[in-house]
Amino acid sequence: MTGKPNAAEAGTIDIGGDLTVNRLGYGAMRITGSGVWGEPPDREQAKAALRRAVELGVNFIDTADSYGPEVSETLIAETLHPYADDLVIATKGGFHRSGPNKWEPDGRPEHLREALEGSLRRLQVDQIDLYQYHTPDPKVPYEESVGALAQLKDEGKIRHVGLSNVTEEHLRKAERIVPIVSIQNRYNVTDRKSETVVDLCEQEQLAFLPWAPIQDADEVEVIVKAARDHGVFPRQIVLAWLLARSPEILPIPGSGSADHVEENVAAATIKLDQGEVAAITDAY
After folding, report:
1. Helices in 176-257 by DSSP H: which ranges?
2. Catalytic-labelled residue, pool 26, 67, 131, 133
3. Which domains does the chain show, CATH number per domain?
């Protein structure tokens, strides 16, 4: 590889028909403290990672009010505001945090409104381009939670609505209330429970944002072999595989290190042949 990598080499994806971004994004969960709680160990290092992502052509950043909580969104605004015209910042609401590694669903309409208003303030914007309901709350009817986001969209505070940690049934319920443009579920080589959801997103042209995209990358023999063959890291092979898996997949690898951000973006330059893609796909 010569020169600096650029996320544009992954091609582009349309979200909601009016947002076009490079198809390799950045997940901003890891610019927080241990357990996704509190400040990062080094704020300047975290901000450097954000800056590096944008310098390398990343124009889609995924975050959530619960990352920190509030820390990730605050750092994004401190580092990148005023935002470039083509930068899309997606955020999420629907969790209550009480401590490190503690995640409690909260889909009450009043909580989602409060979460959305807080995100607007921290990100210093008047409208969230893509606001995602972070997880279903078993204590609240799904339609009530989605209905709250539909109301906020009607008020102009949300441009597009997405869902996270959902099944097709959740999607169908939500679509009866408000247009849905994206789904964010856990998906990687070793966790394929959302395989049918990926296929559904491709059929219906919904963006699919895989979280934990590089989990266990260095523990899968076929990935390690492909990495040796290409002279790259296993996590880069996994990202290249995700890009090849479906044109509707928008990987959002996260890192608090500028160097790791550059390595992740470099995955956009890796071209796997059909045999390599099939071998990785069939590994699990």
Report:
1. 195-204, 221-230, 234-245
2. 67
3. 11-281 (3.20.20.100)
